[in-house]
């Protein structure tokens, strides 16, 4: 299986390494030129991709030629327009996926979508505007 990971950071990189270990071909993106060599060294096919919020890349068509996309891009916490910006980033990715052979998308989220409350939380507890942080609201 060919798996593309959009965001090979602290979570995406170990995931990529495990997927390779399990026999999958992995393509990984980074926003840093310096990290391209590190990805390649780990056996990941590296791509430089930015979402500002539009998709920006050169020679990245091959990245989207995969069976699965792991969407692992966190909202930028320092932005004042975090909800709108992250929404536009996701729309950019959706538009690109629509023209690709990708048939399955795994969206990596966060527990920050849940409000701070004692006890057990459930999915319906994740209500926009009540998340712990604005980044949680952006993920919702």
Structure description:
The protein is an alpha/beta fold and 140 residues long. It has helices at residues 12-21, 33-41, 82-97, 134-139; strands at 2-6, 25-30, 45-51, 55-57, 68-71, 104-107. The chain has a single domain, classed as NAD(P)-binding Rossmann-like Domain (Rossmann fold), CATH 3.40.50. The protein has four helices and six strands. A six-stranded mixed β-sheet has the order 4-3-2-1-5-6. The protein starts with a strand and ends with a helix. The model has no long low-confidence stretch (mean pLDDT 86).
Task: Please write out the topology.
Blueprint: E1 2-6, H1 12-21, E2 25-30, H2 33-41, E3 45-51, E4 55-57, E5 68-71, H3 82-97, E6 104-107, H4 134-139
Parallel strand pairs: 1-2, 1-5, 2-3, 5-6
Antiparallel strand pairs: 3-4
Descriptive terms for the model:
single chain, Rossmann fold, globular
In short:
Helix content is about 30%, strand content about 20%. With about 140 residues, the protein is an alpha/beta fold. The chain has a single domain (about 1-110), classed as NAD(P)-binding Rossmann-like Domain (Rossmann fold, 3-Layer(aba) Sandwich), CATH 3.40.50.720.
């Amino acid at each position: 299986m060919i798996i593309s990971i959009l965001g090979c950071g602290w979570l995406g990189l170990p995931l990529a390494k495990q997927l390779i270990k399990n026999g999958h071909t992995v393509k990984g993106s980074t926003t840093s030129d310096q990290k391209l060599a590190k990805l390649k060294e780990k056996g990941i096919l590296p791509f430089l991709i930015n979402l500002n919020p539009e998709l920006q890349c050169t020679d990245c068509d091959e990245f989207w030629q995969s069976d699965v996309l792991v969407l692992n891009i966190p909202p930028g916490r320092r932005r004042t327009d975090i909800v709108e910006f992250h929404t536009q980033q996701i729309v950019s990715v959706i538009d690109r996926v629509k023209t690709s052979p990708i048939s399955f998308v795994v969206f990596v989220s966060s527990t920050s979508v849940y409000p701070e409350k004692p006890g057990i939380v459930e999915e319906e507890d994740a209500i926009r505007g009540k998340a712990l942080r604005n980044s949680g609201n952006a993920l919702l």
